[in-house]
């Protein structure tokens, strides 16, 4: 399966996906890395791995629609089977998502449905929860609310700051996302009628 990964920053999740895809028996390969930030550090890391990169600076386009149209045109050439959003900090329109519904994943640094949106680690700490974690979900029009594919959990420890917790969660993200991508690439999870359907272990 051909995968396009969308990033906006350092791309550590993209790197963990690329490392997983490098295994000969992994059922997916990264065909392109796309960013809305030409300055995204992850672009250089992708290039270093021989992965084609595409950058679309939002302010080079008169509107969100034109920005997305340019990305969609590149995707028409890349022809990905799957899109993985990985630290992509821009909402994608319903029209765009419908082109890839059921084939677009995102990783979010909280145990959804808790703490959608930003500052998830501080919010988890403020809530007094003793568990935190991350979620890979199908992307739907609403932000961070698509059907859940996989989750990883970490303990909240005494003395945790948002930064410490973020680092503990990120380590799990780097394991969780390749697992979730493998499930989708192998057809072991599908999105049907707005729900994630996991193949039962036979
Ligand atoms: C991290 O906070 C991660 O939890 C979220 O996006 C941020 C940057 O990720 N998914 P990355 O290092 O760019 O993959």
Automatic annotation (TrEMBL):
This chain's function reads: Catalyzes the transfer of a formyl group from 10-formyltetrahydrofolate to 5-phospho-ribosyl-glycinamide (GAR), producing 5-phospho-ribosyl-N-formylglycinamide (FGAR) and tetrahydrofolate.
Signal peptide location in the record? none
Q: What is this protein called?
A: Phosphoribosylglycinamide formyltransferase
Q: Which family does it belong to?
A: Belongs to the GART family.
* An example molecular function term from Gene Ontology annotations: phosphoribosylglycinamide formyltransferase activity
Where does this protein act, in terms of pathway? Purine metabolism; IMP biosynthesis via de novo pathway; N(2)-formyl-N(1)-(5-phospho-D-ribosyl)glycinamide from N(1)-(5-phospho-D-ribosyl)glycinamide (10-formyl THF route): step 1/1
Listed GO cellular component terms? cytosol
Which residues of the sequence carry a binding annotation for (6R)-10-formyltetrahydrofolate?
64, 89-92, 106
From which residue to which does any coiled coil extend? none
Q: Which reaction does it catalyse?
A: N(1)-(5-phospho-beta-D-ribosyl)glycinamide + (6R)-10-formyltetrahydrofolate = N(2)-formyl-N(1)-(5-phospho-beta-D-ribosyl)glycinamide + (6S)-5,6,7,8-tetrahydrofolate + H(+)
Q: Where is this site: Raises pKa of active site His?
A: 144
According to its UniProt entry, this protein's organism is Neorhizobium lilium
